[in-house]
Amino acid sequence: MNRPAPDLTAFLQEVRDIPCTTAADQLRMKSRDFYWYSPILQEQLAERRAEAVVSPRTEEEVLAVARAAALHGVPLTVRGGGTGNYGQCVPLAGGVVLDVTGLNQLLELRPGLARVQAGLRLGVLQQQAHAQGQQLLMYPSTLRAATVGGFIAGGSAGIGSIRNGILKDPGNVLSARVVTLEAQPRVLTLEGEQVQKVHHAYGTNGIITEITLALQPRVEWRHVITVFDSYAAASRFCTELPGSGIDLFLLTSVERGFSRYYTHIEKVFPAGRDAVFAMVAPESLEAYAALGARCGGVQTMALTERELHEQRLPPAYECAYNHTTLQALKIDKGWTYLQFEHPHPFDPTLCVRLKERWGDEFLAHDEFLRTREDPLSAYGLPLVRFTTPERQYEIMRALEAEGCVVFDPHVYTIEDGGMKTIDQVQLDFKRQADPAGLMNPGKMRAWEESGAGRKAA
């Protein structure tokens, strides 16, 4: 299908009753996410801008925007909280950013599930779920700012994954409501496995307007820090937890080099010690402390979230995942990061070898989660001192030689950063939902390489 020449003026005239802006400061702010964690993406994406930002408040207004974009050939990039790390919501082709944060209604909350609009912030949903004695199965470290739709479209795992697996596992995301980008837009409901058509697709193949998530009974998690004399000891402690009966919601290990970036918690994460951050169920707290002691650890903190707030300490989940990268970059802009999956089963001696090989160029950080195949999978999120792109890829090749699977955080296409392969299901769905290729163009390599992108242009 040939794409009409973009006509932004006609688009804006058609959606004039929907909040919209072309103010330069808003265009800059709404065209960014946390891609600047990567100096490589910073160079590639810093000057990319939308030409307008439109902010619908209802699904009906989303339909109007989709219709106008399709009729007038205007590229459309969907944005939630903007907390992604890979340029997911950066408009490569200009056009319009569709800000869905105005779609922020909690539509249904009952035992076992929540049905919400895509722009609702996860932190707000968690509060509402807590009020009914329930909780989210997982969420990113950016709980307070991230939206539900953004997490589904750009995320894959998070806090809670040690207990509940990853987002794509059956029973976590129950359904999604999606608007197509056509002259006569359709509203499609995807249920169960069908949700994979839009999950982790960076908003390239449909506008998610509603999500139904599974919930579980609330637990008053204790936020726990245990420190060790070596990173090897911290890692070995983590390997002892599967099969122990200890109920966890988060398990994160960081080496001592991170302590210089956590000066606000230096009393509980002292310099010269390696740390494990965890969220532990109250009934498991005694067993967790005992196991930590047997592994040579010293527990320095075990507090409820209310107690953390009273003591002005951050929750454990803000000392995990890419919040560690953010904390370091606030102080030292010379860092970037990598993402990789450790070989199975997890071998703590690999952590020692990597540290010995790269020294202060590499600060070890691992996240532990459950998969259908393995009760303890380890994913590395180390800080890496940035010098050149060539050096970053040299380190990635070395990790691959050790049997690791690298998820390149220095690229903005879906396939190259994570999946490594073309997702035929997502490509086929894009052909149906976005036949002109107007949604977030440039982010789905499969579309470009299939020839569809060239035909649409």
List the helices and strands and how they pair.
Layout: H1 8-14, E1 20-21, H2 24-30, H3 39-45, E2 52-54, H4 59-72, E3 76-79, E4 96-99, E5 106-110, E6 113-117, H5 122-131, E7 134-136, H6 148-154, H7 161-164, E8 173-179, E9 187-191, E10 207-217, E11 222-228, H8 231-239, E12 248-254, E13 274-280, H9 285-294, E14 298-303, H10 305-310, H11 323-331, E15 335-337, E16 340-341, H12 348-358, E17 362-363, E18 365-369, E19 377-380, E20 383-385, H13 389-401, E21 405-406, H14 414-419, H15 424-433, H16 445-449, H17 452-456
Parallel strand pairs: 2-4, 3-4
Antiparallel strand pairs: 1-2, 5-6, 6-10, 7-10, 8-9, 8-10, 11-13, 11-14, 12-13, 12-18, 15-20, 16-19, 16-21, 17-20, 18-19
Helix pairs in contact: 1-4, 8-12
Describe the structure.
By secondary structure, the chain is an alpha+beta fold. The chain is 31% helix and 21% strand. The chain contains 17 helices and 21 strands. The protein has helices spanning 8-14, 24-30, 39-45, 59-72, 122-131, 148-154, 161-164, 231-239, 285-294, 305-310, 323-331, 348-358, 389-401, 414-419, 424-433, 445-449, 452-456, and strands at 20-21, 52-54, 76-79, 96-99, 106-110, 113-117, 134-136, 173-179, 187-191, 207-217, 222-228, 248-254, 274-280, 298-303, 335-337, 340-341, 362-363, 365-369, 377-380, 383-385, 405-406. The strands form 4 sheets. Strands 14-11-13-12-18-19-16-21 form an 8-stranded antiparallel sheet. Strands 5, 6, 7, 8, 9 and 10 form a 6-stranded antiparallel sheet that branches. A 4-stranded mixed sheet has the order 1-2-4-3, with helices on both faces. Strand 5 and strand 6 form a beta hairpin. Helix 1 (8-14) packs antiparallel against helix 4 (59-72) and helix 8 runs antiparallel to helix 12 (348-358).
